[in-house]
Design goal:
Layout: E1 5-6, H1 7-21, E2 26-29, H2 30-33, E3 42-43, E4 53-54, E5 58-61, E6 67-73, E7 86-90, E8 102-105, E9 110-112, E10 115-117, E11 120-121, E12 124-125, E13 136-138, H3 146-154, E14 159-162, E15 167-173, E16 177-178, E17 188-189, H4 192-202, E18 206-207, E19 211-214, H5 218-230, E20 234-238, H6 249-255, E21 259-263, E22 265-268, E23 274-277, E24 283-287, H7 291-309, E25 318-321, E26 333-338, H8 354-357, E27 361-365, E28 376-380
Parallel strand pairs: 1-22, 6-7, 15-18, 15-19, 15-20, 16-17, 20-24, 22-26
Antiparallel strand pairs: 2-14, 3-13, 4-12, 5-7, 5-8, 6-10, 8-11, 9-10, 21-23, 23-24, 25-28, 26-27, 27-28
Helix pairs in contact: 1-7, 4-7, 5-6
């Protein structure tokens, strides 16, 4: 075992490894691009809006009033020009007729004997008011959020240049694990096989079903890794990250020719995590077998790696004000489960999930430090968990 890497450095190292290995960008559908980053600037295909567009329902009028009403302009139609003294009913979003001097709002107009009166103003958006055709709307590197997709569609795009979702698989190690029923007679239900794929999906991967449980032999570990790597860019394994009598992951990595990006992290819980890279540029993330430790490994290594692979920045930490003192863990970073109010949660052992299920995330207590009640510290959130 090598000396563990510092927790914050582990996040940065995993992200950089992903960013350096991100695939060439492609023109992706909006669904495929969502959650990635723009690989090139977003440019308006045409003026936005493309023509003068009414901002209200009412009457488009020309010249001095009162105005004789006649006709209507609906969204999606190209209107005829209007002349002095004329008024046409107009809908929000409709093209403003040529010759219009103002629009009377529906709630402000009075119609009598075929004439409309009321205050009028330039109640429309001019062509190109938001952007001109060819204008850069957003720079490369901008995360593709739902509003970005909406802007891209409004600006005339059907696709976006972005990095696709990395394909991911989970390989579960352990003879003691059950995939159904209840724990007993020395065997326990597997929690990570059902949970981790959803964490990967929330972190931006295209995650397939878990493989396993895989029996505790080197041959079975190697075969499972090779199977998963055949159709995945990232394989997350669970368990076997130490050097015990049935921990075969390190030997299996050597067998497939993978090299460590990092091996163990100075964090509690979650210390025995790792990240390795194969000769063809794929990744294996070794998650500890204890459920909470495995989640910490996802937060520390996997989520940053996936962000890098999609061209996104390192996921930022949030902050939380602590409601009580949180002890340190010596020279290691302490990740302590807290609720949204900054209170520590019970059932926070590395093998437990009960506390995690109600947590806002992990309060980050730096090495060689403690965090006092009332202090504001970093909060490492879990992919897919919204508080």
């Amino acid at each position: 075992m090598t000396d563990p890497i510092a927790w914050d450095q582990a996040r940065e190292t995993a992200w950089a490894a992903g960013y350096d290995a991100k695939p060439a960008p492609a023109e992706l559908s909006f669904d495929e691009a969502a959650g990635s980053a723009l690989a090139a600037p977003l440019v308006a295909v045409s003026d936005l809006p493309a023509f003068p567009t009414s901002a209200v329902d009412g009457w488009a009028v020309a010249g001095p009033g009162p105005w004789r009403t006649g006709g209507e302009v609906l969204a999606g139609h190209v209107p005829d020009a209007i002349g002095p003294g004329a008024a046409v009913t107009i809908a929000t979003g409709a093209q403003v007729p040529e010759g219009t001097d103002g629009v009377i709002r529906l709630e402000s107009g009075t119609v009598e004997d075929g004439f409309v009166t009321g205050p009028h103003a330039r109640e429309w958006r001019e062509a190109g008011e938001e952007a001109r055709g060819g204008e850069e709307l957003l720079p490369a590197g901008t995360p593709v959020t739902p509003p970005v997709i909406g802007l891209a569609a409004a600006a005339g795009h059907l696709t976006l240049p972005a990095h696709g979702r990395p394909r991911a698989r989970v390989v579960v190690f352990g003879d003691e694990l059950l995939t159904s029923g209840v724990s007993g007679k020395g065997r326990i239900r597997d929690a990570l096989g059902p949970m981790v794929p959803h964490l990967l999906t929330a972190a931006g991967a295209d995650a397939g079903p878990s493989i396993g449980p895989v029996e505790d032999t080197l041959e079975a570990h190697v075969a499972a890794l090779r199977e998963a790597l055949n159709d995945a860019d990232l394989v997350c394994t669970t368990g076997g990250t130490m050097v015990g009598p049935v921990d075969h992951l390190h030997a299996a990595l050597a067998e497939i020719g993978a090299e460590y990006v990092l091996n163990t992290v100075a964090v509690r819980p979650g210390f025995p995590m790792l990240l390795a890279r194969t000769a063809d540029g794929k990744f294996v993330a070794g998650l500890p077998g204890n459920p909470q430790s495995a989640v910490i490994a996802v937060v520390t290594v996997v989520a940053p790696l996936l962000a890098g692979l999609r061209g996104l920045p390192l996921p930022p930490l949030r902050t939380v004000e602590l409601a009580e003192d949180v002890p340190g863990r010596g020279s290691f970073t302490h990740l302590a489960l807290v609720d949204p109010a900054g209170r520590r949660l019970a059932h926070h052992g590395s093998a437990m999930l009960r506390g995690l299920a109600g947590a806002a995330g992990f309060a980050v207590v730096p090495p060689n430090a403690e965090a006092a009640a009332g202090s504001t510290v970093g909060l490492a959130t879990v992919p897919g968990v919204w508080q």
